[in-house]
Design a protein that fits this description.
Elements (H helix, E strand, L loop, with lengths): L1 H7 L7 E6 L5 E7 L2 H9 L7 H4 L6 E6 L3 H15 L2 H6 L5 E7 L6 E5 H6 L2 H4 L2 E9 L3 H12 L17 H4 L13 H16 L3 H17 L3 H15 L26 E7 L7 E7 L10 E4 L8 H12 L10 E5 L2 H13 L5 E6 L8 E4 L4 H9 L1 H27 L1
Parallel strand pairs: 7-10, 10-11
Antiparallel strand pairs: 1-2, 1-3, 4-5, 4-6, 7-8, 8-9, 11-12
Helix pairs in contact: 11-12, 13-14
Length: 418
């Protein structure tokens, strides 16, 4: 066991899969993690969750691992190992409700869908022939979020071909540049399968490296042929595959030990919001919290001075730049901004320029404004664990910053009418 513990100390703080072996050198369990070091260590220390694998840890005499670029890559690699080796403790943990599959339909313009284990079992042979490919099993994962991510990475069609003589109305994905034009007849079936389905199948089969090399060759060829539009599309896809932003798929299967040990200590959180409802009285707010409560005595108000028109991003830029001039204010460990990627990116850019180290979180309301979407500036594992534990606190910070900004704007408007 001492040799095993020494080996565990060498585990990287990176995403990937870990492989447990017994004395017969049999693979008994495979798991995934955003931090291999934290996850594997949790099996040998800390409170137990009474999963079958934990009860059998005395059988484990060796551990191996494979690093991946992202949690999505780890998810796919884990599924391929389970399908190939059938580790006995993965099988013992399975049930029809927690295991999912991704399927690609058999049609001219194939769709990507998810299906549960029990649904597959209930299908007859003729029904299963509707699927050209079946990938999985995937355990305890937010399948809908995985589908969204894969649709974005590969531009898999979710729309329908317009009927003969019918209108060619672009779908919502097309407007977001997530559809290559199935709905508008801009792409035929053969080209769609070559550009979309073939790369998707390679990715889900665990062939990401060879896929990227293939895409790079095609990109260079299109560039030589001066087909710059297609070369740019492939360049963007390659970049997206190399820098997958997949935090939305993280759930308890990745962050299972989130409450075991959160290493990040946060003494100060600053929340920012912009109230920009009219040309006059554009304002910004800064509220301050610790991990338990607001610190109202340290709230700050900002009347926007340099921004013409209505640009929340430019207003936020001014507010943060002005905040940076105050070295007499305590520096936060976390900054929360009300908004999405544009707000997070401008904050990150300013802070980096000023050599300030801080975790930045944005909270957007989503495309349909029905849920909170968290956007991150960093992938530090301790930060992810802290964030997972404190989501409700950050929503409170966002709401308080919004309230404080609105009240300040209203007070300025009242003064202007006097």
């Amino acid at each position: 066991m001492n040799k095993l513990l020494l080996k565990i100390k060498k585990l990287p703080d990176k995403p990937g899969i870990y492989l447990f072996y017994n004395k017969e050198k049999e693979l008994v369990y495979v798991g995934k993690a955003t931090s291999l070091k934290s996850r594997v260590k949790s099996y040998f220390s800390g409170p137990k969750t009474f999963r079958p694998i934990e009860a059998m840890m005395h059988q484990v005499v060796d551990v191996k691992w494979q690093e991946t670029d992202s949690a999505l890559d780890a998810l796919i690699l884990e599924a391929n190992y389970i399908k190939k080796f059938h580790p006995k403790y993965n099988i013992k943990e399975r049930d029809d409700k927690s295991w999912n599959y991704l399927v690609i339909t058999k049609e001219d313009f194939p769709k990507l869908q998810s299906i549960r284990e029990h649904q597959l079992k209930e299908m007859k042979g003729r029904e299963k022939k509707m699927f050209k490919y079946i990938f999985g099993p995937y355990a305890q994962v937010k399948t809908n979020e995985v589908l969204k991510l894969l649709h974005s990475l590969f531009k898999v069609s979710r729309c329908s071909v317009p009927p003969a003589g019918g209108s060619k109305r672009p779908c919502f994905d097309y407007q977001l540049n997530h559809c290559l034009g199935v709905c508008t007849n801009e792409i035929d079936s053969k080209t769609y399968n070559e550009k979309v389905i073939k790369p998707l199948v390679a990715f889900l089969s665990g062939k990401k490296k060879s896929l990227i090399k293939s895409l790079e060759r095609k990109m260079n060829q299109f560039s030589k042929e001066q087909n710059f539009e297609e070369a740019k599309r492939l360049r963007n896809q390659i970049f997206s595959l190399q820098k997958v932003k997949d935090f939305s798929i993280l759930d308890k299967s990745f962050l299972e030990d989130v409450n075991v040990n959160v290493g990040l200590k946060v003494k100060r959180i600053e929340g920012y919001d912009i109230s920009n409802l009219g040309i006059e009285a554009k304002v910004g707010s800064m509220v301050v919290f610790n991990e338990k409560e607001s610190i109202k005595g340290e709230y700050k108000k900002f009347k926007i001075k340099t921004v013409d028109g209505q640009s929340d991003v430019d207003c936020l830029k001014e507010v943060i730049e002005r905040r940076l001039k105050h070295d007499d204010w305590d520096w936060p460990q976390v900054i929360l901004v009300d908004g999405g990627k544009p707000q997070v990116n401008v904050a990150k850019k300013i802070l980096k320029k000023n050599n300030k180290s801080v975790f930045i979180v944005g909270i957007a309301k989503g495309i349909e404004r029905k849920k909170n979407e968290f956007i991150f500036s960093e992938t530090d594992f301790d930060f992810l664990k802290w964030l997972k534990k404190n989501e409700s606190l950050l929503i409170r910070v966002r709401d308080e910053a919004h309230r404080f900004a609105i009240n300040y704007q209203r007070s300025l408007k009242r003064k202007s009418f006097k």
